[in-house]
Amino acid sequence: MSNKTVVMSLRGLNRTYNVAEGAQLEVLKGVDLDLYAGEVVGLVGPSGSGKSSLLHCVGLLETSEEAQLIIDGEDLTRANDKLRTRARLTKIGFVYQFHHLLPEFTALGNVALPQRVLGRSVREAEARAKALLEQVGLGERLNHQPAQLSGGEQQRVAIARALVNSPRLLLADEPTGNLDPDTSKQVFEALKQTVRHQQVAALIATHNLELARHMDRVVTIQNGKLTELSTSAV
Fold this sequence. Notes:
GO terms for molecular function: ATP binding; ATP hydrolysis activity; transmembrane transporter activity. The chain is α/β, with parallel strands linked by helices. The chain is built from 7 helices and 10 strands.
């Protein structure tokens, strides 16, 4: 990966939580991670191992004073709230286990919304949203509301929404966790193809080891340390 563009560089992430009176749980111990343009990296491990903590810190939802975090060439290590909010809107896309689509909006409206937040015109926002929905195979479902879509379709809308502002980094937390195996594969393929097309760096936390085997790299957290695994050994 040395000849590829580094999108996200993390150095020295430590994360400790207070779990009881005077007791602390150290879940991340000096974690380093680089993510590259156009690659999909799987993050696996048991519940409580620190996967969500890692995603939240990389996604600027939690802070760690000691860690250095650079996204798309910008050092966000000690960024203030305003800069962190701006980075989350323009540099980072999020996909969750639950799609969190707005029920009163159509698929097109849900995907166009982040563009409107950035100040794009309705015409510009909807054109960009339409192109992405077509890319994830929903060109015929633009005007359907979430309740009119299947679970897999709803999650593909969520992926399109996460990518509509052209982020450099995509973070996903169990994006296929509520889907059956066949639908999971379809949604993952749509995500992977879109990541490749847009040259986004993607970090995907998942318990689905079958999906993890189809990612470019797989990392796991063991005793607070990040370890890279062979995809064939997952």
